[in-house]
Amino acid sequence: MVRKNFIQGAFILLISSTIVRILGFIYQILIIRIIGTETIGLYNMVHPVFIMALVIATAGLPLAVSKLVSRQMAYHNIKASLKILRIAIILLLISGITITLVLLFIAPYILNSLYKDPRIDLILYAMLPCITISAISSALRGFFQGLQEMTPTAITQCLEQITRIVFGIILAIKLQSYGIQAVAVGLAISMLLGELVGLFFLSLLYFRKKQSIIKLARNNVCAHINSSTVIFDLFSFGIPTTFTRLISSISLMLEASLLPLTLQKIGFTINQAAAMYGQFSGVSMTILSVPTILTFSLAISLVPAISEAEAQGKLSSLQFRTTESLRLTFLLGLPAVVALLFMPAELSTLLFNIPEAGSTLRILGFGGIFLYLCQTSNGILQGLGLVNKIFVNTTIGSLIKILGIIYLASIPELNINGAAIGFTVSYIVVCFLNLEVIRKSTGIEIKQKQIVLPIIAALIMATSLIISTLVLSPLFSKNMVTLISLVFSGLIYLILVILWEQLHLNILFTKKTKV
């Protein structure tokens, strides 16, 4: 039986994620230039609390929906797939409303104990309605992803981002005269409007798709599935996923709390600490995360693809999908690492006009390829159902990050760079732990040339980057030199990996494959 090309699904998400990320970059640049890093620092301080609440509310169910729907579709059990979605939406509606109400009452105590900045309370309150809306939207996305249809997710991602940007800029300009807190609240309101638009269009796409699915269901003999079985399956997969995301959210929350406090302890003022955290999270981490548009897309596509291959008992298909996703992540992540290591200050200047973020970005760049492989390998492990392993590895990585902030960022000579070192070590450790679990579970083997040839191409790219910068510097402005050098050296890398048959573009346009 032929299957859908999971790489093509990832490519669709890659295009939409690229558009979203580019728009997000422009948005971030404009916002920082309009109101500075302090506002971004305030917004990013409270955002982890919202994310943790959302993680608890969703309980890992959207990802479970994707996996369970893909498994039922492997057996052509269409009615069961629709039932899984219905039950998941009911559960998410109940949990979303409950968590929102609980957080509404306990938020002041949480914020007062975690932060010493009274300006962030209203920001969280503006975010609270997003919890239920986002939870329901994620269930619908999980359903479409379980069908291995990535277009609905791609469309709504773009619509949400456009809405968020348009209203975010409008509110930032209108509220600027009312102070930093008001602008940060405006950013939260723009996020809420984006979520509403996303849910509206996902609902339209679902009801349109539902009619054709029901017609197919009438022509198929489908096995009955009990509601209790669905609920058990959803939570047996969702609970470990929730714990993993909780660990990540708690880690983000502690990072947002500990890092500014640590910086204050070594002599920085509260405003300086907030600005430095905004620089770290809003500039350095944003640039580092650019290639995750690929790994995010692969991870989403891999969960149903790996689950389908496992359900059908196709070991060769499972190994192919696993190996190919890791290979593509490594192949396309390397040029990003070259840029981060050789032009960190130039990138920070080009995008945000904050060259001082370059030293932190270079340190993070050493862990870049490991971060990208972490995200892809998490998608593989989720598809295999090994969510317990992800939980353990993520916990270890989070502890390393926290220890890095506590012990390294408290060294005055390192300050914010100490946190970057801790983050880099965390990415490396988690990556190797994930890959070892995958190797033992699937028996995959990566050919030596699939590692060596991309590294050689990356070294040639680095050389061309240095040479082109030296040649162009007397002729153009700094930003223009950065842009031209990156494009030129990136094209050299791309040409080399294509000539060496490490990247095959034809697979992006093949809808189905027998592998």
Characterization of the model:
With 515 residues, this protein is mainly α. It has helices at residues 6-35, 37-58, 61-74, 78-114, 121-127, 130-146, 151-175, 180-218, 227-265, 270-288, 292-311, 315-342, 344-352, 358-365, 368-383, 387-408, 416-442, 449-472, 478-499, and strands at residues 3-4, 512-513. Helix content is 83%, strand content 1%. A two-stranded antiparallel sheet has the order 1-2. α2 packs across α6. The relative contact order is 0.12.
SSE map:
Elements: E1 3-4, H1 6-35, H2 37-58, H3 61-74, H4 78-114, H5 121-127, H6 130-146, H7 151-175, H8 180-218, H9 227-265, H10 270-288, H11 292-311, H12 315-342, H13 344-352, H14 358-365, H15 368-383, H16 387-408, H17 416-442, H18 449-472, H19 478-499, E2 512-513
Antiparallel strand pairs: 1-2
Please summarize what this structure is:
This protein is mainly alpha-helical and 515 residues long. It has helices at 6-35, 37-58, 61-74, 78-114, 121-127, 130-146, 151-175, 180-218, 227-265, 270-288, 292-311, 315-342, 344-352, 358-365, 368-383, 387-408, 416-442, 449-472, 478-499; strands at 3-4, 512-513. The termini are close together.
Rg value: 23 Å
Helix-strand category: mainly alpha
Helix percent reads over 70%
Number of helical stretches of at least 4 residues: 19
Strand tally:
2
Pick out the low-confidence regions: none
Distance between the termini: 9 Å
* Proportion in β-strands: under 5%
Mean pLDDT: 85
Q: Give the topology string: H per helix, E per strand.
A: EHHHHHHHHHHHHHHHHHHHE
The major sheet is characterized as: 2 strands, antiparallel
Broad shape: globular
> What spatial order of strands do you see in the largest sheet?
1-2
